[in-house]
Design brief:
globular, alpha/beta, Rossmann fold, homodimer
Chain lengths: 343, 343
């Protein structure tokens, strides 16, 4: 193969992480760019989405989706340009939403590709506020959280891709919104830019007291994506008939199980009984269909109006994806984390 | 007062129980029967319902209702005859559903009384299959459990006042029904009389394996009223999108908190996430209204048809209520427990 042939860089899972992923859990390899067969397209990755759920797929514990195997390309949603097409429905230059993972190029049969408008101002937003994380916020808050005007909605990871949308949606529906975020900059952003009523820093002391002070009427909806100490602080504040949509548990993904402590499972069940709580886990992929089209239309309008604001944390270069992902799991990103792979 | 004056025996809470209530936690005292003031009726208790929730009201831990105070008459639903009336809407001899507690006589303003047909074949059933426990089964299974034909419904306390109705309702809706009950006699009854597909004895060894064998397609709805080891056996069998209506935790009511063990709260939340579970506590008193009338009509028809069967465990004499209640909390009753106070 001549040295000038284009190469495909791929980041694969080199081993299963124990706890927080380490650099050695990833490996960048390089292959020749494959040519599309008849009926296939070759995709050039422009943007790669990094999301907490990916940590779950690196583990072989039972979950809602099959785990990655060692040696597999890391998975992920992408915005791609069709580089070469032998598929009747796509032409070179088309912009598409794909799930082609952590690599420069990928082949596709066209299945699962969603065409994007060619003149999209912010193609990467299709990976965030207008895509899976935004829809996760919409489904979890509106379908499961069912907030009523005047209620208090608390949301973890308040400036993240999901949490920032949850809080702004809850404000649009007339709720008091209390965010929980890591560090004063994120808390300032949640209140000043996103319009939350309050935001509590989970890294500072006395989280439980400060969250209670920010929630004088208790909490009616807690949008959970974090678990751990944040959930512990929320529990005593839950009102009767509180709803807990549950889309993630980022603080637990890297936890080592089996720590000896009082077993609080019976306490949680008792609280669910005495307060008539509804705790409901959900996977956004179960909810696509007409509801997604409704979400797309409404969210586009709200963004155009300025009623929903959106912040991205853009990392340059595929080779920096592992470090950015390790940072994501520790809350180092500020806004929706995407990698610009090519422009 | 002449020696022949009728006396009112009352069972009061003598102290707060620690763990399983003991005889010393109750005291029978005797007072003169009060006379009704203008606008009041005097009720004569015929039947007293004994239900697990009463244990919670003896505790001062925060819950959905105010706790009893030491010296208060034990609370409970009753079927009463109006002994004397100075209320325009009631006449001596009327049969009513009341909440007059563990005593022979009580005064009432009429508020909260429900008139029963004078010729009712089984007045005490208004405390069971046609009353609060039956409605608890109906609300929890149909509104929260939302079973679909072909799904597997598991129910704890399978021959109890609630569980026996849950299982029979689930069969009527085309589900596979797996009961969990204490002892071979109850399990036989659940299968032979109530028509459950299987029933597993939680007192025998290897509960988890036997429950798994009885649930070859996993569990889609688990109707929870028990907690503890039964819940632990159910958890690994829950299917994706399983629903857990939660109306009680009888095994926990007497538990001493704070045992050191692995904290399984994070495990439960992770399971709720990865399996998209819905765990929902409910208090039946939140659901009265049109749904109760629908329940009453349907349940009466099903009983008349023989499609729902009902078993009572009738204890004779108010003075035996404390021992019967202590037995209830340990599963000694077989069917809905009621006390015949007078005939």
């Amino acid at each position: 193969m001549p040295p000038s042939a284009p190469m495909n860089r791929r980041i694969v899972m080199a081993r299963r992480p124990a706890g927080i992923p380490a650099p050695e859990d990833f490996r960048l390899d390089t292959q020749a760019v494959p040519g599309p067969a008849d009926g296939q397209v070759l995709l050039r990755t422009l943007y790669l989405s990094l999301d907490p759920y990916m940590r779950g797929r690196m583990s072989d514990a039972a979950s809602y989706a099959k785990p990655l195997e060692v040696g597999d390309v890391m998975l992920g949603g992408t915005v791609c340009r069709v580089a070469e097409s032998r598929h009747p429905d796509f032409a070179a230059g088309d912009l598409v939403l794909a799930a082609s993972g952590w690599q420069d190029y990928a082949l596709s049969s066209g299945k699962g590709l969603t065409r994007l408008p060619p003149d999209l101002a912010h193609p990467s937003w299709s990976l965030g506020v207008l895509g899976m994380p935004g829809f996760t916020a919409y489904v979890g808050l509106m379908q499961i959280g069912t907030p009523k005007a005047g209620e208090t909605v608390a949301v973890a990871a308040a400036t993240g891709a999901v949490g920032s949308v949850v809080g702004q949606l809850a404000r649009l529906h007339g709720c008091r919104v209390v965010g929980i975020a890591g560090g004063p900059d994120k808390c300032d952003h949640a209140v000043r830019e996103l319009g939350f009523d309050a935001c509590v820093d989970h890294r500072a002391a006395n989280l439980a007291q400060r969250l209670a002070a920010a929630s004088p009427n208790g909490i009616d909806v807690y949008f959970e994506s974090v678990g751990g100490a944040v959930f512990d602080a929320v529990l005593p504040l839950l009102n009767r008939h509180a709803r807990i949509p549950l889309c993630g548990l980022i603080s637990q993904y890297n936890a080592v199980p089996g720590v000896e402590a009082p077993d609080r499972l019976p306490m949680l069940m008792r609280l669910a009984l005495t307060k008539s709580l509804r705790i409901q886990g959900f996977i956004v992929s179960d909810w696509y269909g007409p509801l997604y089209r409704e979400f797309s239309r409404q969210m586009s309008d709200w963004i155009a109006d300025g009623r929903i604001k959106y912040r991205e944390d853009v990392v340059e270069g595929l080779e920096n994806a592992p470090a950015a992902f390790m940072g994501l799991l520790q809350g180092h990103n500020f806004g929706k984390l995407v990698v610009r792979v090519a422009s």
